[in-house]
Input
Amino acid sequence: MPSDSVADTARSARGLPSSNRWKKVLITGASSGIGEAFARQLAAEGSDLILVARGVEKLNEIAQELEQSHGVQVKVCEADLSAPVARAAIERLLADPELPIDLLINNAGFGTNGDFSELPIAREEQEVQVNVVAVLRLTSAALPAMLQRNSGAILNVGSIAGLYPAPGSATYCATKAFLCSFGDSLFEELRGTGVSMTTALPGFTSTEFQKRSNWEDQRSVPKAAWLTAAKVAADSLDGVSARKARVVPALGYRALVSATAPLPPSTRRWILGRGSRALR
Output
């Protein structure tokens, strides 16, 4: 892997600045979708990366490409974040004072689709482990070192689904609602410390997520409603730079959140419930 001087030289040769917003970034769920988009955009800025996911073969391909293209250092860590032992290895990495992480991106997550009463409970529990427990533990591991340095940032990738009920996605929405509340609370706890917490709330995004969640028919969602992973990553990173508590990528989704926020919970539940059923 290239040294810092070699990395700077490689970036300069490509017309890229040697400076970057974050020197070292750890990204979970980095083998595809939004996580891969984060990796590509940060490498182009000159950030060294630690990429975490289950698919080590894809991670290695991405790492090799980014090192060669951008002159950055990329470390690959294979880990199933639903497994406590694998998760603990990433926690130790984040807590290592000799390896300061400037930005932690908790991006790994998945959803399930169907009536809760008919879904295998083991898979629902695994969803909570990845979407909630892993975020909780990795954030806990990273914060002490960041607070000691009085610098650092954490970005949790939630979803606009965390703001609304959605029949057929009960567990997924609940996990993303947790991230909203957790992130907002930590944002205030960290105020004035030099460390920031941002929660990204993207809407429908074109990735492999839908296939993995067993949502086969996506034609009921208008084409204009779909975001690209690159757009979500770019807006989210800009939100971290601006030290925002929440980021809702794309003007249309920000308008939706603003328009529905004043409605009584019962009204929002009825409207979103009908809408969710229409998408199933």
